[in-house]
Amino acid sequence: MDTAFSDRRRRDLLLAAVFVVIAALLPLFVKDVYIQNIMVLTLMYAALSQSWNILSGYCGQISLGHALYFGLGAYTTSLLFMKFGVLPWFGMLGGGLISAVIAMALGYPCFRLRGHYFVIATIVIAETALLLFQNWDWAGAALGIDIPVHGDSWLKFQFARSKLPYFYFALVLACIAWFVTWWLEDSKWGYWWRAVKDNPDAAESLGVVVFNSKMGAAAVSAFLTAIGGSFYAQFVSYIDPESVMGFQFSLLMALPAVLGGIGTLWGPVLGAVILIPLTELTRSFIGGSGRGVDLIVYGSLIVVISLARPEGLVGLFSPRRREIVR
Amino acid sequence: MTALLETKGIWKRFGGLIANSDVSISIGRGEIVGLIGPNGAGKSTLFNLIAGVYAPTQGSIVFDGEDVTPMTAAERCERGVGRTFQVVKSFETMTVIDNVIVGALIRTTVMREARRKAYEVLEFCGLAPRANILASQLIPSEKRRLEVARALATEPKLLLLDEVLTGLTPIEAQTGVELVRKARAAGVTVLMVEHVMEIVMPLVDRAIVLDLGKVLVEGKPTDVVRNPKVISAYLGDRHAVGA
């Protein structure tokens, strides 16, 4: 049975490699800039949702305030660059570290809350941060920060002419988030997180330090989310509080994982690949007059999924698991 | 040889209710001790005080020569206290073997080692054929055994069993009894809370009877069941012939 387990781990890794190669070759066939843009966003949300999944899926601490870490990443990178001339590459790491520290500082009081109360706290904290940033003059307040673009530069991670560098960076980001999850899944942390999610009392009795597990998950999750935020700031080269810290980002990080399969390795990727293109396309083709068609699509998808396959779409691809359940 | 576990004058109050008053018990290494008593006697409270779920209002708990009174449940687990829950608390979305791996991970962080160990424990508990199904798919008696398996994977010196035999069919209970004997043979000391006297009495070396939060009687199971105080606590004074 031990070999069956490591076989599955290896198969996951192999599958991921195949997907990466396919994704990397896509731009050869897709020249349309609009579609390329959607591909970048899809990969970015895959990475973000994968990061969200670590805290909320594996460890079971549902956060609807991850926009905070996304925004912190975007702001840290942009502010460090604009005010101190720090290159975005370092800004990214800085944003990640700051977010991880803040996630733990917030976790200290919040992880005493259970269930819905925790979810509410995450929403309130993210909304508070949004208001703070809207009124913080040094950080551009509600007007935000315009990052000047002076032609293509790998050093400054700016590309005016082509989307492709962003595409490949987003691909690397998605790979990192996936690989970190893959690696943590079969580690002490991964097991501790799932135990905490399923039953904190039983976990504690088996030597799991529940509080520390949650803190660890929050730090890793916030770090990776902030890297995504940094990337987004570079990608759009203009940020303001609403456009990087708005509640919709918290939702957009959670939904792919929920759709694909919460607390699973492949759920976030699968969810993002379906959800992001779908919403972007509905927004541009059906949208126009009625903003909110994309939201209707989200809503209906979630209803259909929760009725038909509550464990997420990944359930469709694991017949073995279904046999077991029966 | 010193006792493995000693509670020294433990009191536990919940508001105005005194659940345990001045309980001093001692468990020797390699013993199987039964903790019995009528409903509301304070068995579960004492059990949870030893496991580290509650802190005593007064008194101290010494485990393996160390004062563990201020320690959390997780810290006590690390020192060798393993427990099961009366209402089973399996990790339902995880497979049976993954449930046990969580326990094994307190002794090793090498996953391959933890997995091997978990499989061994499952074989020991007769759950190996069920290793790869979800814990939620087990039948109730198997879930009880999974509780024991998980606790054993932490390599406890003291195993606390909270009504693991209650509510099982006679055959299932017999399997449970054999499992407890096997655990003791492997060097584990056992303290078990039980309701069902006829199953526990042949199994335990010593029985401690709690009533109204106090130790009423302790001794050999055969003596304890004949003790008038015990009979009166369980059945009322009328039945305590010769009291």
Written description of the protein model:
The complex is a heterodimer of chains A (326) and B (243). Chain A is 75% helix and 1% strand. With 326 residues, chain A is mainly α. Chain A is globular, with a radius of gyration of 20 Å. Chain B has 9 helices and 11 strands. In chain B, the strands form 2 sheets. In chain B, strands 7-8-9-4-10-11 form a 6-stranded mixed β-sheet, with helices on both faces. In chain B, strands 1, 2, 3, 5 and 6 form a 5-stranded antiparallel β-sheet that branches. The radius of gyration of chain B is 18 Å and the shape is globular. The two termini of chain B are 36 Å apart. Chains A and B meet through α1, α7 and α8 of A and α2, α3, α4 and α5 of B.
Q: Overall 3D geometry of chain B?
A: globular
CATH architecture group name of chain A: Orthogonal Bundle
What is the helical fraction of chain B, as a range of percent? 25-40%
- Give the count of structural domains of chain A: 1
Mean pLDDT of chain B: 91
Number of helices of chain A: 14
Instruction: Indicate the low-confidence ranges of chain A by residue numbers.
Output: 321-326
Task: Evaluate the radius of gyration of chain A.
Answer: 20 Å
Low-confidence stretches of chain B: none
Largest interface: A-B, 27 and 38 residues
* Residue share in β-strands of chain B: 15-25%
Q: What overall form of chain A do the CA principal axes indicate?
A: globular
Ends of chain A: how far apart?
20 Å
The helix/strand series of chain A, from N terminus to C terminus, equals: HHHHHEHHHHEHHHHH
Cα end-to-end separation of chain B: 36 Å
The ordered H/E elements of chain B are: EEEEHEEHEHHHEHEHEEHH
Largest sheet of chain B: 6 strands, mixed
